[in-house]
Design brief:
The protein is an all-alpha fold and about 190 residues long. The protein has a single domain, classed as Up-down Bundle (Four Helix Bundle (Hemerythrin (Met), subunit A)). About 85% of the residues lie in helices and about 0% in strands. The protein contains 7 helices and no strands. The protein is elongated and about 55 Å long. About 20% of the residues are buried.
């Protein structure tokens, strides 16, 4: 089911946010975090949620607006929230690039930018889990889910293939493995 998939993706996103948070704590101590891990997480967020996860949510939300406009109004402007998340991610990428290029940037500014991204992503997913997904499950009818699923399957974008899923699974696994290795070296 589509909502189960979206929830699984939220779980994966949360794992990566936790890794990013651990790397930020290292940065905050004045030590050098693993920038390879941080760049990999940023790359994942630049592609996966943007090209795959959010369009699925947008399809579900479009159906919710038709079936239950009041519930959709309670959820708010989902597309705008997704855009704001993209803008915050862009600021994270710029801040990390500035650090890596030895440009003048206050550590506190880097911390604020990365922490804001983490907090806002969690807040956004929590709202979706609490308001959006239950409303969609309640309001949408079987034919809606069939239409959403067929819209996703018939999409011609190569990122929507099984091979792409495997690529993202491999990237997630790589990021988490790098983090485990970095954690082991620190202890």
């Amino acid at each position: 089911m589509i909502i189960e998939l979206l929830r699984r993706e939220h779980h994966n996103i949360e794992l990566l946010l936790a890794v990013l948070e651990r790397e930020l704590a290292i940065f905050d101590r004045g030590d050098r975090p693993d920038y390879e891990i941080i760049r990999a997480i940023i790359s994942y967020f630049e592609v996966y949620p943007e090209v795959y996860h959010h369009p699925q949510e947008d399809l579900v939300f479009a159906k919710l607006k038709i079936r239950d406009p009041a519930a959709a109004a309670k959820v708010g402007d989902l597309a705008r929230e997704h855009e704001q998340g993209t803008e915050r991610l862009h600021r994270v990428a710029q801040a990390v690039d500035s650090v890596l290029a030895d440009r003048e940037i206050l550590r506190q500014n880097v911390d604020n930018i990365v922490r804001d991204f983490i907090v806002q992503e969690r807040h956004h997913m929590m709202m979706e889990e609490r308001d959006f997904f239950p409303a969609a499950l309640k309001a949408l009818e079987p034919q809606d889910w069939t239409e959403i699923a067929s819209a996703m399957i018939s999409h011609e974008d190569p990122l929507f293939s099984e091979a792409a899923e495997e690529t993202f699974d491999a990237l997630r696994a790589h990021i988490l493995r790098l983090e485990q290795e970095a954690e082991a070296e620190r202890h």
